[in-house]
Structures are given as C-alpha cells and as structure tokens.
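We now fix the convention by which a protein and its fold are recorded. The integers have meaning only within a learned vocabulary of local backbone shapes. The record below shows the convention in full.
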Amino acid sequence: MELLTMPMLEETANLTKETKEVIEDYIRRNFVEEKYHVIALYVPVFLAALIANSLVILVVIKDQYMRSVTNYFLVNLSIADLLVTIICMPEAAIKAYKSTYDLGRYPCKISSYLQCKYSTLQTLINL
C-alpha cells in the first residue's frame, strides 16, 4: 500500500490551504509518526502476563503438594488470564499502534467474539 502524499492529492483536487493542513496533519499523526511508546508499554505487560501465568500453571501441575482446591482455582484464573493475554492483548496493541485495521474482515469478527467470550469467562471465574 502506497502512502498518500500531498503531491498526489494536489494532482487530483484543488485544495484550500486549510484543507491541505488538515490532511497533512492527519497523515502525519496516523501514518508517519512512529508510536514506539505504545509497543514499549504493551510488550513488557504481555511478556509478564504470559510468563507469570504459565509458571503458575506449571508449578501446580508439577508439584504434588500444590494440588489443592484453592490452587486449582488459581490455575483456572491463570488459564483465563492466559487466554485473554494471547487473544486480546496483541490486537489491542495493533489497534493502539495503527489507526487502521489491516487484519481483514473475518479476523475482526472472530477476535471481537473471542474477546467478549474470554472477558466474560474471566469475570465468571473471578466470581
């Protein structure tokens, strides 16, 4: 996909100075400026959630003394949180990083459905 530039716009339409400034500002904010701070915030949280929840599940499964009703409940919480981490967080990071949704029609519908289901699942498990 080719980035839309002002010379391209000027060739196709007669634009006022104010309109050009608005379009340039929109292009700069949404397509040109890098939003590395968003990724810098999402990556550590994603990795911490992934590692911590995996460790909780692994410890309860491996250690015989950790198998209690309370710890099984914690494993349920960790599984729900892991599903939210894997399914919801990457898409949230993409949405925060880019102003357009480029993943397609079906991934949009599927991910929205799964986000709703896993959020509901996590809420019900926490009750």
User: Anything to note?
Assistant: The CA atoms of residues 44 and 117 lie 25 Å apart. The mean pLDDT is 77. The chain has five helices and no strands. The chain has one domain: 17-126.
